[in-house]
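name: query_chain
kind: protein
chains: 1
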Amino acid sequence: MNGRSLQRCFVATIVVCSLAFGGCLTLDPTVTADTNGSAVFERIAPSESWSSQRVRAKATLTASPSAGNVSTITVVSASGTSFSTAAIDPGQTNVSLELPANETATLVASDAVNGTTIEKLNVTTGGDSLL
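structure:
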């Protein structure tokens, strides 16, 4: 192993250990949401095998007319503040979202053109926290 590779390995080890011992590393994150009967969301699932303070997730939108009108999805944390926002292009069916780790949040699907809320969906994230 050359010096540059050894340095990268060392830095990666320090980052992983810091996250693990800081209690903010989650393995196999989960996303739970009741999408049965949802006019907008078909499925929401984690897109990575680990997370820190944010769970990256992939939301699959339904083929309904309501989902076709969605132009923004805002993630609202349990405290009521905006956590992240994703812009949706016309016809887009897969959306990358960032959700707060180990917390309940609300996804607010809206039409940014006229400012109407199309649907709200509660989601809960979890997983195997280290330390």
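note: The beta strands are 25-33, 41-46, 50-51, 54-61, 72-77, 82-87, 94-100, 104-111, 116-130.
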